[in-house]
């Protein structure tokens, strides 16, 4: 009788501990059940905000659907498009190397509604946050995506949109890397702390590394839209505050013309960083052709490899 009671109690405790362990473990992504993506290249169209929007997808050969994988959204700059970003950003190569699924969405009229930029996306108040949220949702339905590794990057106007996603979609996005565009708003209210790294060049002739005030006598903001450009260091300071980082700043001279500054002691294990390329251009993709670039520029770092090694998969 005593033995039976002890055995029953032990079985109950084992079951209780197993239940507690299961409840505390992070929820894993559900494998795709229908209309699942296979390795290869795809174009997907969805409706968002009354508009038919589309995006390119690359599923690496290593993807089987059995294990969950990271998802990266890679956003083109103003006057560019998804195919151009896919060709030059380096993320296609990294997808095959590292096994993540890469997505290149198209903005409306070659633009994104980022903070204070650009063209029709901004002027028409296109809800690009809702669109990119829908892209993530569609990818989770059609592939086995790791919920804890959903990343966004972009360059120029796309970098600004990546910053906006950090502010307005931190509940679904894990980390962001913005190239050649600062936060550029004082209205950022992330749902939770999120790691944000900016990569910026001091000789950027399009988005000034040191910032530009709005033309006199215009105010800094008009109806919530920034009229100037925030400096890269001011953007870093803003993310330090938003992520609740300590004052300890780690500085690394990565190369003679590349320095890294990073706040590593931030809430929920997040980080806020700035990679400064002394000299450099607005488009920091080696060999880029277009927008006046002839293809002879060689960036001092491969930005795609850098962000996966030092921000996303560190």
From TrEMBL:
Its main location: secreted. Residues 1-29 form the signal peptide. InterPro entries: AB_hydrolase_fold, FaeB/C/D. It is found in: Secreted. GO terms for biological process: xylan catabolic process. GO terms for molecular function: feruloyl esterase activity. Keywords: Carbohydrate metabolism, Hydrolase, Polysaccharide degradation, Secreted, Signal, Xylan degradation. One of its GO terms (cellular component) is extracellular region. PANTHER family: FERULOYL ESTERASE C-RELATED, PTHR38050. This is Polyhydroxybutyrate depolymerase.
């Amino acid at each position: 009788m005593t033995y039976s009671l002890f055995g029953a109690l032990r079985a109950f405790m084992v079951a209780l501990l197993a239940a507690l362990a299961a409840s505390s473990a992070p929820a894993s992504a559900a494998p795709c059940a229908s209309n699942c993506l296979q390795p290869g290249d795809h174009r997907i169209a969805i409706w968002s905000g009354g508009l038919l929007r589309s995006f390119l997808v690359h599923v690496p050969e290593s993807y089987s659907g059995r294990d969950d994988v990271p998802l990266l959204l890679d956003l083109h700059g103003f006057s560019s498009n998804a195919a151009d970003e896919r060709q030059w950003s380096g993320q296609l190569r990294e997808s095959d190397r590292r096994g993540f699924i890469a997505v290149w969405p198209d903005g409306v009229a070659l633009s994104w509604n980022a903070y204070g930029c650009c063209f029709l996306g901004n002027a028409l108040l296109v809800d690009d946050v809702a669109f990119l949220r829908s892209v993530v949702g569609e990818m989770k339905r059609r592939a086995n995506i790791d919920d804890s590794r959903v990343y966004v990057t972009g360059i120029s106007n796309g970098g600004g949109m990546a910053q906006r996603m950090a502010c307005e979609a931190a509940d679904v996005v894990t980390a962001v890397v913005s190239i050649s565009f600062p936060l550029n708003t004082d209205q950022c209210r992330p749902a939770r702390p999120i790691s944000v790294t900016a990569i910026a060049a001091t000789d950027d002739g399009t988005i000034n590394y040191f910032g530009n005030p709005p033309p006199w006598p215009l105010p800094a903001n008009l109806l919530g839209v920034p009229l100037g450009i925030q400096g890269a260091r001011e953007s870093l300071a803003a993310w330090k505050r938003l992520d609740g980082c300590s004052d300890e700043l780690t500085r690394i001279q990565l190369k003679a013309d590349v320095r890294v500054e990073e706040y590593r002691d931030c809430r929920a294990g997040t980080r806020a960083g700035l990679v400064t390329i002394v000299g450099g251009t607005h488009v920091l993709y080696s060999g880029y052709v277009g927008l006046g670039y002839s293809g002879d520029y060689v960036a001092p770092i491969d930005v795609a490899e850098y962000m996966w090694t030092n921000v996303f998969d560190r």
